[in-house]
Amino acid sequence: MLPVDGPAVKTFDWAGLLRCHPVLSRLDEGHAHWLVSDDVSTEWKYEPGAVIFREGDEGDSVFLIGSGSVEAVLADGRGQTIVLSLMRSGETFGEMAFFEGRSRSATVRARDACVVLEIHGQELRRLADARPDIEFKVLLTVSERLRSKNEQLLALHLKAVEGANRAKDEFFATLGHELRNPLGVISTAIQVLNTRGDADDSAARVREIIARQAQHLARLVDDLLDVSKLVARKLTLEQRSEDLHELAQRTLASFRTAQRASEHDISLAGESLWVSGDPIRLEQIVTNLLDNAVKYTPPGGRIDVRVTSEGRDAVLCVRDTGVGIDPDALPRIFDPFVQGNPISDRSGAGLGLGLTLVKRLVELHGGTVSASSAGPNRGSEFVVRLPARDAATVTPTAPEAPPAETRARILVVEDHADSRAMLAEMLALEGHEVTAVADGAAAVEIAHANPPHVAIVDIGLHGMDGYEVARRLRGALGDAILLVAVTGYGQAEDIEQSRAAGFDAHVTKPIAADELLRILHTRIRR
To answer: Counting CB atoms within 10 angstroms of each CB, which of 104, 290, 324, 332 has the fewest?
Structure first.
């Protein structure tokens, strides 16, 4: 930061003015002179229009303006500028505080001729530590006159932030939709091939690899979208009683079925403990902890999962014999995009969001999670604590009857050609009579001519969208038809909008074949 005409000679009576300041008036002579010493502060003289500091300059100082005024020029996000003036004259001065330690967001220039004393932030902190009786926090805010202007700016800034957040949410939702469409096609195509093919044929191994990698891509997309929803506080939980030990057992069984644990020795021990929570999100917690342990434990290593009780808590512990966590990384291990101990093979490192999701989801359930490690190559341990429920208060859920052998007329409405073809093929292989169309108008016409038992409708249709198709089919056929929404958008507001349009179920792409078939069989049986 350079003055217009070089450093001014320190003739301004700053020490006297400091003694008049409503906050600094309790300074003794020694501290007052110390504040204006060359080691602590720098004095500059500015002519009208001269720039005191520019947008983007970094700094950590408090500026005292004597016998003059300055203005802050800020952008409003629409190509215009906002000018905030700080007016002080005579034997008074104004202050501007920038204890930020980062880039400034405004250009500040002298409105009138003025003298500016820049006091370094770290030195003011030292004085604050030495004189705790002086309310230095006042210097960490702008003067009362500028504060009222700043509140107006803050309101504009918050509007801009809200707009940016909406744009970000829309971007992530669109990203999820666009990625889920091809993932849905791949997943459904594999389901079709598995139904048609022999489990022992030469292509079975290839199909298995494709399915596993498609699931991995789907998990990455889900993690990215879930973190976005958690940060925006838009993720809601469906609370019900769950046996934490049984849930861990199911998760581990899924891991083994998907061959994600084939190279490790994984054990599960402990007792049956009940908690209240969202079963899908609880399983996501266990899955991400297991996934993290597998990722950072070399083949042949051991992973121990244990469910125990401590006081009123149900405790899930996942311990591994892997590469461990560097002490410097341990405090940040749950931060987004942090890799606790980056592995050389980046192909398996993921996005660094799994543990962030664990922490946020655990906290949503009213619990805590902690991580510990004895250091590199000495393994790590993650401990989740959730409020336990008394088993006596839990009402066991009757097991669902197995699907009956049924054959239904199903109408598939999907404008994505590959998705439409694969979904129709999969349902036909299950024994259903399937009609597939690409637009809403054709769907409504066919439904009137030959009413289907089920309509599986993509929301993002061209022309007549899926919501309108649902309203028309529900109006014509009433409760005689099962309406299933299929879409890449899976946030709470999307599900609510589907229900309002008349859909009975909302399935997010990529479609899990077992989930869709369960919905169909359950409703058809009823």
So the answer is: 332
